[in-house]
Amino acid sequence: MSKFPYLKQDFTASLVVFLVALPLCVGVAVASGVPAELGLVTGIVGGLVTGVLRGSSLQVSGPAAGLTVLVFEAVKEFGLPVLGVIVLITGLLQIAMGVLRLGRWFRAISVSVVEGMLAGIGLVLIAGQLYPALAAKAPDSGPGKIAGLPRAFADALGDGEALASLALGAGTVAVLVLWKHLPARARTVPGPLAAVGLATLAAFLLGLPVATVEVHGLLGSVQPPTASAFGELASLGVIGTIVAFTLIASAESLFSAAAVDRLHNGPRTRYNQELIAQGAGNALCGVLGALPMTAVIVRSAANVQAGARTKASRVLHGAWLLLFAALLPGALGLLPIPALAGVLVYSGAKLIPVRALAVLWREHRGEALVLVVTAVSIVAVSMFEGVLIGIALSIVKTAWEASHIRLEVVDKGAGPVDAYLSGNATFLRLPRILDSLEALPQDRPVRVDLSGLHHLDHACRTALESWAERHSDAGTEPVRVTAGSAGTTRDTAV
């Protein structure tokens, strides 16, 4: 027992994580447009393969709601065999980035971009999953999903099956919302499992006419990519999807690792090793034709809160998923699709950082703008383009803020006029600087103090020199400029 001092804690935590992961694995798979068993395959690989490798000791990996929209689009456009190729190459790229020690650079991505990405995914996920909850077919595009909701709800009012489906989905969301307010003894059963279990029981006892999960069998669902599927790598669309998978899965996993590190006092995450572990798991998922994986904060937080102490808990959770898929595959066929849709609607809502956005709007409106634009772009265009737009806007905002400059003019009414420049003088603020300097009196001597500048680029230096020469040519005393930390004084030179 001394070899495994925390076996009891890890065993208990693994059961909790298994019960949390089971409905989420199935729900993500169904929402992604693939057989439900493939979600379990990814969860199994996340436990038995990624769980064994070094990186983050308490973080749990599996199919994530955050990639659902992108996976659904990829399966629809390229087909399920090509999805395996995409996931395989994504995994190999993650391994390469980990070997090249690029993992820590993902920490440099703006938090607002990541939160905006998750918010955009959440909005599309909610809109998309409301259609199965209404027993209706979802439109293809993000804007179409949102715009079509009023019509879908209106059509459901006169349809008994649609109303039964909606009631079951709404009941699932209600259980998830209220579950955390129940006594601690009742909450020993994870909320997602309780919600789906109660919905399944209600559908069975009341004989509700709702759709259930189609069961294909674990081995029947595993379809390794064919040789012809690798030929699609010549397509720009496939390459773009691979880049999107790689960036989003890596960023989500490493940001999740940072969040999990704040939940416990154990060993910290080694980011490059974690990226290699995620890559190994995704490469195997690709070979098996399964869903891509990321670290999942919901399962990871449940793991920590259940008292896990080592990575044994996440490995064991993978073993429980494998046993369930092997021994009770028929149980999947009892799960109502509206209930799984309700779980994902709730998960999508949790991806939208309403409180964080309110705080950002009060304190950092530029960051709030980046978050909102990223989210809206993902809904309006696509995941990949939306993230790129968010990153570009974040860079522009940073460059604009880095060029902040302050000009203070002291004019006592007689004698020389003093102008104090502080901050960063870059070409971005050059028009403002020149407008202010050119507004100074032409018939008075001017003294410009540049000692408060942290940076003076070539464009600003040249423009200041030209202005100083023009001002001095007007017949007044030469402009006197104080520059540098030593406070040296020069005439007409900047």
Rg for CA atoms: 29 Å
Mean pLDDT comes to 85
- What are the low-pLDDT stretches, counting only 5+ consecutive residues below 50? 485-494
Largest sheet: 5 strands, mixed
Q: How much strand? A: 5-15%
Strand order of the largest sheet: 3-4-5-6-7
Helix content: 55-70%
How many domains make up the coordinates? Answer: 2
Gap from first CA to last CA: 74 Å
Total helices: the number is 21
Number of strands: 7
Element order, helices and strands? HHEHHHHHHHHHHHEHHHHHHEEHEHEE
Briefly note the structural class of the backbone: alpha/beta
Task: Name the overall outline.
Answer: elongated
Describe the SSE topology.
Blueprint (H helix, E strand, L loop, with lengths): L6 H25 L4 H15 L10 E2 L5 H11 L1 H20 L11 H23 L8 H6 L1 H8 L3 H20 L11 H16 L11 H4 L5 H4 L5 H26 L9 H17 L6 E2 L1 H9 L6 H16 L9 H14 L3 H10 L1 H16 L2 H20 L2 E6 L6 E9 L4 H9 L7 E11 L1 H16 L6 E4 L4 E4 L3
Parallel strand pairs: 4-5, 5-6
Antiparallel strand pairs: 1-2, 3-4, 6-7
